[in-house]
Amino acid sequence: MSAVLTSLVRWFDSWAGAERVREGDRRIDWLRIAPFVLLHAAVALVLVVGWSPVALLVAGAFYAARMFGITAFYHRYCSHRAFRTSRALQLVLALLTSSAAQRGPLWWAAHHRRHHRHSDRSQDAHSPAVDGFWWSHMGWLLARENYHTRLEEVRDLARFPELRLLDRFDALVPLLSLGALYALGALLAHSAPELGTSGPQMAVWGFVVSTVLLYHCTFAINSVAHRFGSQPHATRDQSRNNFLLALLTFGEGWHNDHHRYPGSARQGLHWWQVDLTWYVLRGLAACGLVWDLQPVRVQARRDGR
Considering only Cβ atoms within 10 Å of each terminal Cβ, which end of the chain, N or C, has fewer? Predict the structure, then answer.
């Protein structure tokens, strides 16, 4: 299979040609990442489609739902096993989070587990201390060495065929989400024209704009939260607590807290540290939908918190 064909196939089957990926290959396959680049360029379409209150509302709601998915499911559940849930809700959360277009659950968790094991050292794929700010922000995920899913890191998750399927065909759910939002806008344009929206407008605001915002708020945890903020805990890395990022990412900005207690389902450790993901998880636990929320260990109390 030629390199060009492999790149095209990977738009739909991200596992294609994984055996040909070499460690240390930091070249960018521009054909492979063309959808990522085009999605950013498509933000300019807001000048063409205009805006409406309903489109902004949908964009905000879809951002919030998927940010919760990234923080609660991809991060705290898949990467750190900070709580437990049923297989049915696991699938629901996987479908929701896959719509964020941040690759599949196995890929995401595998890279994050390696990040914690080698944080801010040479084996860390996205350390601003080692490779600079922009590489840690987004360059790393465009490099060929980081395309494939490291299944050896996530054997606990890889035993679920539905998660493997979503990971392998990671473009499917985002494309279906884009189509659904376009259809919603077209339906509203027909049935409620007074709302001033349309299929293209809903697709651009609801999917394109909210997804790009979601990208860079998530990416900022790797870059900004390892450069700017406070360090209340002495960790082996340069993780920081950043209040603004904590608001934008529903609690992920308490990054130094997280690196000190990575297995905790709660990242805002003080009452004043806003952690929206933790609040929602507590609500789901009260309903019996999740359980075994992992606490900060007793040692945290001895650290002066």
Answer: N
